Structures are given as structure tokens and as C-alpha cells.
């Protein structure tokens, strides 16, 4: 096996681990009875400390992609919080995860990364699986929430393309700036919350592992994997999210959701295997 093949395989494995860590947020947010803005801010503050320790010796160079990526990172999370309050959770998740469409467009415009046939096929299959997964809960209600979720998908795409554009410097600086700003914006909300030992443990996990470690893994992987391919692999997150809730809390998905999840998992696994055989970066 060539060094390039080995590097890509490691990068794809890191993306899968990133999706796994990101997917645990739903479970822990359910266990933490705080306002969503407080959760986002407290998690950002803890994650900022992680990033500051990790990146302390790396000079911070402001570039258009660094600023755009940090704004996209914050925007995706704020818009998701807003959309879940204004529309159904299924609508919010499904519409935000239309991000690959925008990643495809932005990737061609700003990165010169053109999708392969396997990318188109994977995208269609994943969206079909997502429709099965969320289909019974999708509605046309909550116009403003739905628009916020769509804009959240655009913001997520901006973050992904920006981190890819920063591959020759340090993509994690995007998460550092975004976490610091997010932590400051929601700080007044955090100070109004009541704290328990359980709350401290959950916030510590969300900041250190679910955000900090996941962003570190993603920042390493995005240097080796094109933006669209990485986004398709990260589509594993919304499928795994309810799985952890089911295993711990007992909220069971319906049969169509299980079928849709299986379709999405199969498509991502196939794309990951095919992607591991190519060495384009």
C-alpha cells in the first residue's frame, strides 16, 4: 500500500470518528436541561480552552476563509438552535443536511473540486435514505424555522469548504475563533443557569470530546479528503444521533426510520470504501 493510500484511509477513518463524536450531542443535550444557547456557549468556552492549548504555538493568520469558516461554524449552530424552536426537529435536521448541495457548488467555485459520478450517486441515495428516516415527521409548517434550517445548511457548507481551503495552514483555527465568539455571545445565558455535578460532566464532555477532539480529528482529515466527499461521510451523524438516544433513553425509531438509516449507512460505507482507493487531495 502506498503512503498516499494509507494517508487517505486514515483520513476517512478520522472522518467516521468525527461523525461518531458529533452524533452524541443529541443524547447529552437531552440529558442537560438548559437553554440551547447556554449549551452552545458553555460547550464553546470549554472547547476554546482545548483549542488554545492545542494551537498555542501556531501563529494565527486571518484569511478570508478563516473568517468565513468561523462565521459558518457559528451560523450553522445558531440557525440549528433557532430552527428547532420554529419547526419540527426532523425538518431542522433534514434541511440543514442539504449541505452537500451547497458544498458541491462552493467546492467547484472556490476549490476547483469537481464531483465524481460516485459522489452524485451517493448524494441521491443518502437523500432517499434521509427521506425514509425523517419522512413521517417532515411537515410544511414553520416557514421561518424551515428557512433557518436551509440557511443553516448553507452555513455548514461554508464551514466545510473553508476548512478544506485552509488545508495548507491549520483548519482547526476556524473552530477556535468560532468557539471563542460563540462562548462570548451566549455567556449571559450560561450565567443564569443552575449547575450540578452532572451538568459539569456533560458540558466537559461536550466541550472536550464532542467538539474539541472531533474538530481536531476533522481538521486533520480534511487535508486529505475533498470537501464534498468529507461532507457525505459526515452524513453519518444525523443517523447515529437518534441511535444513542434509543440505546440510553429508550426512544425507539419507527421501521421506516430504521430502513432509511440502513440505506444511509450503506451509502456512506460504499463511498468510504471507494474513496479509500483514490489518492486525489
Verbal overview:
With 281 residues, the protein is mostly helical. The protein has one domain (3-276). It is built from 14 helices and no strands. The longest helix is centred in the last third of the chain and has 25 residues, at 197-221. It is globular and about 50 Å long. The mean pLDDT is 84.
Poorly predicted spans = none
Q: What's the N-to-C terminus distance?
A: 17 Å
| Structure summary, number of beta strands | 0
**Estimated structural class:** mainly alpha
What's the quick description here?
This protein is an all-alpha fold and 281 residues long.
Keywords:
281 residues, 14 helices, 78% helix, globular
Task: Give the secondary structure arrangement, pairings included.
Elements: H1 3-23, H2 25-31, H3 36-54, H4 64-86, H5 89-96, H6 99-111, H7 117-134, H8 143-165, H9 172-185, H10 187-191, H11 197-221, H12 227-234, H13 236-248, H14 255-276
Helix pairs in contact: 1-11, 1-13, 2-13, 3-9, 3-11, 4-5, 4-8, 4-9, 5-8, 6-8, 6-12, 7-14, 8-12, 12-14
